[in-house]
Automatic annotation (TrEMBL):
Keywords: 2Fe-2S, Iron, Iron-sulfur, Metal-binding, Redox-active center. It holds the Pfam family Glutaredoxin. The gene is grxD. CDD domains: GRX_PICOT_like (cd03028). Residues 16-81 form the Glutaredoxin domain. This is Glutaredoxin. The lineage of its organism: Bacteria, Pseudomonadati, Pseudomonadota, Gammaproteobacteria, Lysobacterales. Belongs to the glutaredoxin family. Monothiol subfamily. NCBIfam families: Grx4 family monothiol glutaredoxin. It comes from the Bacteria.
Amino acid sequence: MPVMERIQAEVEGHPIVLFMKGTPQFPMCGFSSRAVQALREAGAEHLHVINVLEEPEIRANLPRFSNWPTFPQLFINGELIGGCDITLELHESGELQRIVTEAFAP
């Protein structure tokens, strides 16, 4: 499967997808670590995570797919939410919890 199709399938196949450096247990950058922490605090227990350090093709092509240059990148219900700063701002305002709750609603 071509990498752009694979990214599309990942984003559409899960309510919440975080493309990050490392894993939630072992984040490999501070921005990824803070994004995971904010998502957990907002109640996102079941994140689908793609470790871009283990997926060089995704790491190289995701910025073109999303039009967002940096990692992590958070997608909820197929839509790019943004990176670490936006995730933290949404968390501080309480908005992230609402978005996460809605993403998992039946």
